[in-house]
UniProtKB/TrEMBL annotation:
The lineage of its organism: Bacteria, Bacillati, Bacillota, Bacilli, Lactobacillales. This is GntR family transcriptional regulator. SUPFAM superfamilies: Chorismate lyase-like, Winged helix' DNA-binding domain. Keywords: DNA-binding, Transcription, Transcription regulation. Residues 1-65 form the HTH gntR-type domain.
Length: 235
């Protein structure tokens, strides 16, 4: 329930309904007809995504976004959530969907044991029918026993939330400029050696439980990354 409310608040921030400040908790409680605790959990999700700042005694204010681009990747929560317009559509073309046993090199990247069984998903993603990125992602079968074709073709993270109550709580992100290999360039319609933005992520849920590793190459025009840092010092 609170995730649905969080998503609705995010949509209202993106479309300008909430452009300066969120309504009070009491107003949101009345609007969504839920408990104050549910509203607080929803606000916490939005806050973690870097869209809000809290002013003591005054409430939650909307952070100004750094660009009008419809393809800003929000790294504040660590899942690479796109901050494109709610009217935009993100779709997928699956290249590979199978189970593998990770090699020693792959295991080191994911910090798991050699030969760990993983779901492997390779897909090209499109934003409004224009190529967005090439994504290689991996999910340990010990954490995600079942991964469906429908989920792979749509939103894997939504499936994990709904099926296993898995939500990302922390991540490690690495952004770089990389030259495309021939295998990467072909599905992206690019030339080998073309330099693009790349993002690798380790995603964790619950008590630091690893559930996903991904590496993506972005070719969408105007692609940017956004990160919001909060000062947690008590001084």
């Amino acid at each position: 329930m609170y995730h649905d409310i969080a998503n609705d608040i995010i949509a209202k921030i993106n479309d300008g309904t909430f452009d300066v400040k969120l309504p009070t908790e009491q107003e949101l409680t009345s609007q969504y007809e839920v408990s104050r605790n549910t509203i607080r959990r929803a606000i916490d999700v939005v806050y973690q995504r870097g869209l809000l700042r809290r002013v003591q005694g005054s409430g939650y204010y909307v952070n100004n976004q750094p660009s009008a681009s419809k393809a800003i990747m929000n790294l504040s929560i660590g899942t690479g959530l796109a901050m494109h317009s709610p009217d935009s559509k993100l779709t997928s073309k699956v290249v590979t969907f199978d189970k593998i046993r990770v090699t020693h090199a792959e295991a080191r990247l994911m910090r798991v044991a050699d030969n760990t069984e993983m779901w492997r998903v390779v897909r090209v993603r499109y934003l409004d029918d224009e190529i967005y990125n090439l994504e290689h992602s991996y999910y340990p079968t010990s954490v995600v026993p079942v991964l469906t074709v429908d989920a792979v073709n749509d939103s894997i993270f939504e499936f994990l939330d709904e099926t296993y109550d898995i939500q990302p709580t922390s991540s490690e992100d690495y952004v770089s400029i990389e030259a495309l290999t021939a295998d990467q360039a072909s599905p992206l319609g690019q030339q080998p050696g073309e330099k693009v933005l790349a993002l690798s992520q380790l995603n964790f849920c619950g008590n630091g439980l690893f559930f996903n590793y991904s590496i993506s190459q972005y070719v969408y025009p105007g692609m940017r990354f956004y990160f919001h840092a909060a000062n947690l010092s008590s001084n």
